[in-house]
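Retro notes, item 3 of 5
We never archived the inputs for the S-adenosylmethionine complex last cycle. Fixing that now. Sequence and ligand:
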Amino acid sequence: MSDSPDTTAAARLAVVNLVFGSMSAQVVAACVKLGVADALDGAERSVGQVAAACGTPTDTMHRLLRAATAIGLVAEPGPGRFALTEAGMLLRSTGPGSLSAFARVFTDPVMLTAWHRLDDAVRTGRTTFEQAFGVEFFDHLKAEPELGAAFNTAMSQGTHVTAAVLPGAYDFGRFAAIADVGGGDGTLLAAILGRHENLRGVLFDTAEGSARAGDVFAAAGLAGRCEIRTGDFFGSVPGGVDAIVLKSVLHDWDDERATTILRNCREALPDDGRLLVVEPVLPEAVADVVAPVIYLSDLNMLVNLGGKERTRDEFEVLLRGAGFAVEDVVPLPPSGFCLVEAVAA
Ligand SMILES: C[S@@+](CC[C@H](N)C(=O)[O-])C[C@H]1O[C@@H](n2cnc3c(N)ncnc32)[C@H](O)[C@@H]1O
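Structure as it came back at the time:
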């Protein structure tokens, strides 16, 4: 290992930046909660104008905007004058590609409290969410409807990139009907049905998870082709379809519970049906093709839900245990996700 002053200083800075990373995330959170990105919108404004629009004192807003500038959300074209960068634009509450709900949810104490016990989770292999909140993650969301609604929007915002690429990456046109199980607000299903006018869809989720799906389908002109069914995927999932999509569902659960969901899918599908799992697929060794955020997501599953991100081998074993065989794994760039296509074994 080199100990030249330059590399030592760079290594120290790298560690300090990592340690301060959670504070950077709180700068993002404060910008969203105070409406800073909406106040700046597409224009250059003085710190006084932003402070007035957000209802804060000027000096503390100036300090927030300086930090937001230092971490790349905002630029300071002239002293005390600020404008959003391309990244900062994504924190506006609406507009193309908005990540405001995503930022709000993933910086919330409900998401982060269990992270403070990551060491315990690594030691025991068990989620630390229940230690802090007394119930499982999705049950807790039911008790906090505002956060639950933000979670659903955050999932939809996180699904945007996959929804843009998946419908063109797989031939959904061969099916008459598909179900999206744990499909949230229907963002992905709407994108698939939007491309295939003869395809019917069934959106299956809890009442809370699917609360906004009706609006999403109505806005896309798909209400007539899409049915919303509520229920518990640990009990059963809707039949009468040719394929089932499971996006970002299996990674929420440990192998035993994921197997229950998969067995229910196997029971609901005809023998020539297809199971389409849409999730990141980890390589056997850490590789640059997988963004660091996927490995952080894996630990997020560990602390908050007890689930995990999986390798191809792990998917194969899991699916085999529920009566499926993996037929293909198709990467879906630039989403970081893959389509794992499985058939009855
Ligand atoms: C991580 S989100 C994924 C949402 C969506 N598929 C996406 O990728 O944007 C997991 C989904 O599973 C749903 N869910 C959790 N527990 C469930 C259950 N027992 N039965 C049905 N859906 C459930 C949640 O409401 C949520 O919409």
